[in-house]
Structures are given as C-alpha cells and as structure tokens.
Specification:
13 helices, Rossmann fold, about 15% strand, about 290 residues
Length: about 290
C-alpha cells in the first residue's frame, strides 16, 4: 500500500471491529501510533494508560477501547490553549521559522484565513535578505486579496519594513498585520538579534499579539531541533504545522506540544490557499481515531 494512502483511522478500523481485545490488539495499536508519528515514548505512555483503563473497567470490547483512545488523545491535545490572541488593533503577528518550512506560503494562507472572517489584513515583507521571498510573498498577498508593504530599496533593514507595515496599518485602520521574517542569517545569534530588533521597533507603535513558529510536520523531530533557537529566543506563542497529513502524521501535533510546551494554533493540510485551519483538539482527535 502506498504510504500516502495510510491513515491512523483506517489502521484502527480493522482493530476495533474484532470481537474482543487481545494482545494482538495492543501490538497493532502500538504499531499504528508509531506510524502516525506519536514517537515511541508517547506511544508507550498512551498504551499503558489505555491498558490500565481497560483493566479498571473490566471491558473486552474493542469499541470501548476506541472511545477511550479518542478521549485520551483529546485530553492530551487540550492541555494547551490553541486560541489565537488577536484582540489588539492592530493585531501584529510575527511569523518565524527556518527557510524551507513553508513560512511565506503559510502567511498567504493565514491572510486568507483572516479575510474569511472579514478582517482587513496587511503583510510586511521583512525577509529582505532574499529577494525571492519578497516576490513570493507579493504573489500570495495578491491571491489572498490583502495589501503588502515591500522594502523600498534592496537590502532595506527588516525592522524598518516591519515598522512601516505597522505604521500603514494604524493609518489605514487595518485590523491584522502579518510580518514575514528571515529564516537564516550568517549566524543564529545574528538572526535572533534581528528578530529582537524587529520586535522592539514594532512595539514602539503596537504590542506583538502572536509570534508564530512554522514547522514542517514531515520533518518531525529534525524540524523541531532546527527550530530550537526560535523557541528559546524569539518569544514564540504558537506553532503552525505545515504539510500535515492529519491522518498519517497527526501524532506529531501531540509530540511537538509536549516537547515545547507551546500550543499548535494552525495546521496546514494541503497546498491550496484555503488549506490552513485553526486547530481544534476535539475535532482532530475524532479525525485521528475515526
């Protein structure tokens, strides 16, 4: 079977239609959770928890196990609040992450997401170190039907672009400001210093409502390791998972929340401009287990 056609719900379906819970059920459950990117430690904890519940309630019905699994996942996914904090006007969102995770694309999708709620949006192209990033952001801004503030000249200071974006939003009464930032400089220290400067300049005009870190779900733990500097130094308030096939790699949401202590707030599950949604633990647990 091709990997992309595999889903956790599909793998569990056969398991839960059996007549009774056996050791094979537990073996199959562990294998399914690991395949869905829960990781060995988390898989073991979930399985041990479910074994204890099955024993406590004295059940042998696989449908009881299915319900318990769904409730366990929802409980764990709900430990952190996924609500976006966008009450300020303007609400300023910094988007950070290493190059290649889909950061600029995510900004375009997020802009459309906000436009769908009738919010006015402007994006700021503060990744001035890559001319291609500015052009790419301009393309996505056009698709999302939002304004963009570009650098006025090549190599313009990123913080000044961010400042101009917020300034324009205040002048025009724009509700949402999304700032693209560089994903790579010569040194990590330099990059974090640049982000600190951008934030300091913005906060002369308005508070920063959210700092969203974009992670590529397909890279798993490697992607998380690459992003550690942002988590340590950038004041990250929420995570955005891109390239997330919810049915096949959905376990990464729980893994990344547990490892970082930062809530997943948005998930991207496709390449279209409408394929970014808010994260809802109850719905996601239902999708995972079926």
């Amino acid at each position: 079977m091709a990997e992309k056609s595999w889903s956790l719900a599909g793998a569990l379906r056969g398991m839960f239609t059996r007549e009774t819970i056996t050791e094979d059920t537990w073996d199959d459950l562990e294998e399914a959770l690991i395949t869905a990117d829960f990781g060995p430690d988390l898989t073991e904890r979930i399985t041990d928890d479910l074994r204890a519940k099955v024993t406590r309630y004295g059940t042998t019905d696989p449908q009881d196990l299915r319900r318990m699994l769904r409730e366990t996942l929802e409980e764990k996914l709900s430990l952190l609040d996924p609500t976006l904090n966008l009450q300020e006007r303007p609400a300023v969102i910094l988007v950070v992450g290493v190059n290649g995770v889909g950061k600029t694309t995510t900004i375009g999708k997020f802009a459309r997401f906000l436009r769908n709620y009738d919010r006015s949006v402007v994006v700021g192209a503060a990744d001035t170190f890559r001319a291609a990033a500015v052009e790419q952001l301009a393309t996505w801004a056009q698709r999302a039907d939002v304004e963009i503030v570009r650098p006025q000249h090549e190599g313009q200071d990123p913080a000044s672009v961010a400042f101009q974006t917020v300034e324009q939003a205040k002048q025009n009464g724009t509700e949402m400001v999304i700032i693209d930032t560089a994903g790579r400089l010569q040194t990590k220290g330099g990059l974090m210093d640049e982000l600190t400067k951008i934030r300091r300049v913005i906060e002369k005009q308005a508070p920063v409502s959210e700092v969203l870190l974009v992670l590529d779900a397909t890279t798993g733990q490697n992607g998380l390791a690459q992003a550690e500097a942002f988590i340590q130094h950038a004041g990250v308030t929420g995570l955005v998972l891109t390239k997330l096939d919810g049915s096949a790699k959905g376990g990464f949401i729980l893994t990344v929340q547990e490892k970082t202590g930062i809530p997943v707030k948005l998930v991207g599950q496709g390449e279209g401009i409408g394929d970014l949604t808010g994260f809802t633990p109850h719905v996601f647990a239902q999708q995972l287990v079926g």
